[in-house]
Amino acid sequence: MITLEQIDKSRVPQHVAIIMDGNGRWAMKQQHERLFGHRNAFTAVRQAVEAAVQMGVKYLTLYTFSTENWNRPQAEVDGLMELLIKAVEDETKTLMDNDVRLRTIGDMGRIPERSRTMLQRCIDETSGNRTMTLILALSYSSRWEIAEAIKQICRDGLAPDQVDEETLRRYLTTSEYPDPDLLIRTGGELRVSNFLLWQMAYTEFYFSEQLWPDFRHEDFYAAVADYQSRQRRFGKTEAQVEEKK
Hints:
By secondary structure, the chain is of the alpha/beta class. The chain contains nine helices and six strands; from the N terminus they run βαααβαβαβααββαα.
């Protein structure tokens, strides 16, 4: 088991993204409906936020609800939106205690007004916090994000030779945040599910068999310890990276 003391805080990833997978399967193992798993996921969210703050992570992005999730049974979608309201109400104090500010990315126009109101209240209340930024990806998909960025570039009348990688980056919903250094996916699945595709060009991936409701501080430490065991070369040779040190 990895402990906090084993983490080299001088080499902690600045930005960690998490695909929180396995709520439904966890609930079925407990012989409950899927929403039971979503309800029990908030303990894992709290543990992830606390562990990230302890290690010195500056940005934590959680894949909370994808655009594809709107296709789930209406009862589950409605239940998730109600759980979102409750989570924001219950966790605002945790965010304040840990000096964490809340932000969102995604197509917020599709989120019910009551949920948006609660989110905005928490965003406003935590806006002065500086230790870490917690970003909820809500009604989000990467293909949607890139398509929206291209539409806005066209609306702004940019000529083709004015558009490069940096231009597109500025039009993404994540433009004010650094790209993720580490992606964690729980639940044993080995895919990125339309999440931050542009931003994860050089992200290190860590896949865990742990179902999300069981995710704890130690699981986060293990992912970061694994990240710290790797050499990030960004297209350079190993010799070039070593020479730079």
